[in-house]
Specification:
About 30% of the residues lie in helices and about 30% in strands. By secondary structure, the protein is of the alpha+beta class. The radius of gyration is 15 Å and the shape is globular. Strand 2 and strand 3 (about 65-75) form a beta hairpin. The protein has a 5-stranded mixed β-sheet with strand order 5-2-3-6-9. A 3-stranded antiparallel β-sheet has the order 1-8-7. It has a two-stranded antiparallel ribbon with strand order 4-10. It contains 6 helices and 10 strands, in the order H-H-E-H-E-E-E-H-E-H-E-E-E-H-E-E.
């Protein structure tokens, strides 16, 4: 039998392992994921009893040929034009889901902005700063991590910009 790594023994995801290694204060919230639910983010907000403006989804877009991570409230949508502008690009489109999964190391609906396989440029919607803490995917469906927006921005080297639409 293969020896389990420390990460596997602790049951952590790359996102939670990264937070622990960085010494960042956070809370992990788990819930039973319903595959029939139409929205991963809204499901998380409902299951945790957290207002949807405090729960953020992680989206991967292609900005002028470079994959870029956008972190926006689940209650709204991503403004692709604003995302492109935030990183000095001209045009943005949603990335191919399979490419996003391969690049980040996470499955769709569980992509975390933290602990990605390849560090990508990240933009955090400016609305995050209105909250003491926000929730983002902890790296798998049914698992969220709550942390301060400042810590998320620091750990991901995120640019703060108004990229979400209500």
């Amino acid at each position: 039998m293969a020896k389990k790594t420390k990460k596997q023994q602790s049951g952590g995801t790359p996102a939670t392992v990264a937070l622990t290694a960085a010494g960042v204060r956070h809370a992990v919230h788990s819930y039973e994921h319903d595959p029939a639910h139409p929205s991963y983010g809204e499901e998380a907000a409902e299951a945790m009893g957290v207002p949807p403006e405090r729960v953020f989804k992680t989206l991967v877009a292609d900005v002028d040929g470079a994959l870029t991570v956008a972190v926006v409230p689940v209650a709204g949508s991503l403004d692709l034009k604003a995302l492109a502008s935030a990183v000095g690009g001209k045009r943005a489109a949603m990335a191919d889901p399979a490419l996003a999964e391969r690049t980040t190391g996470y499955v769709r609906g569980g992509i975390s902005p933290l602990g990605q396989r390849k560090k990508l440029p990240t933009v955090l919607d400016a609305s995050a700063t209105a909250h003491a803490t926000i929730c983002v995917s902890a790296g798998r469906r049914g698992l969220e991590v709550e942390l301060s927006p400042a810590d998320l921005a620091r750990l991901t080297s995120a640019v703060l910009a108004p990229i979400g639409r209500p």
